[in-house]
């Protein structure tokens, strides 16, 4: 194998080819070290560096997601996601200085507080070394930034790399950290990391975008260290699948009317149910622990009010974590 600027270190991760799973070398987490072009001599895949983001997705898979990416970015831009101002990113998730999506960021802030104050400390007891955390669906990198400030070593993964709402926006954090966390463009079911690398893998409001729930969990567990955990945060949960299907239909109809696209080019998981989570437990011999952040009284009574008014069950958010025991 041949790689440039990849060095073995105590605080490092081992990279893996997404084409053939061959080892590509180590990436230091002790300094700013996004990989330069990394060549796999086994299958000839090249993980290129573009604006300090490792492009760890084969061209055929990127083409598969191209319509989804186009629709997603169009809708997110119309919703007012992102900003040209640095303070927008630095204040996330606790304040949306644009005011355009404040209620959603309030939810994200409560979830993150629960993660950082309760869930992660329960999973990671030894803080002699900075825990390595994979932020899956990192978006603009706000969670990786907050994790870095808290003493973790995050790695950010997303399929979006634009400068407003994708990994490119993480440059706003660089001067506020000793070094910017590594960023990779990759899909959840094919990650560019060797086995047993991370203390925690967090699906950051992203699990519902997975095309195959078992493939996503299998890959996350593969990359997780023994006794580490896979965490699902901020994916909508419903008590009945029919409620989730109704939500999807309503959203697609609204998107079609407002944006001219249903944003349905890929078939994704969309939502969680207890049945789906139970199937994952059985498939991987894990057990989900559930934490429910308090999102406020108004949010808490939503299911009751919907029932009294004869409306569809609203989504709820929980944090699910499963330890890797073998």
TrEMBL record:
<feature type="domain" description="Methyltransferase type 11">
    <location>
        <begin position="134"/>
        <end position="232"/>
    </location>
</feature>
<dbReference type="GO" id="GO:0008757">
    <property type="term" value="F:S-adenosylmethionine-dependent methyltransferase activity"/>
</dbReference>
<protein>
    <submittedName>
        <fullName>Class I SAM-dependent methyltransferase</fullName>
    </submittedName>
</protein>
<dbReference type="GO" id="GO:0032259">
    <property type="term" value="P:methylation"/>
</dbReference>
<dbReference type="InterPro" id="IPR029063">
    <property type="entry name" value="SAM-dependent_MTases_sf"/>
</dbReference>
<dbReference type="Pfam" id="PF08241">
    <property type="entry name" value="Methyltransf_11"/>
</dbReference>
<keyword id="KW-0808">Transferase</keyword>
<dbReference type="InterPro" id="IPR013216">
    <property type="entry name" value="Methyltransf_11"/>
</dbReference>
<keyword id="KW-0489">Methyltransferase</keyword>
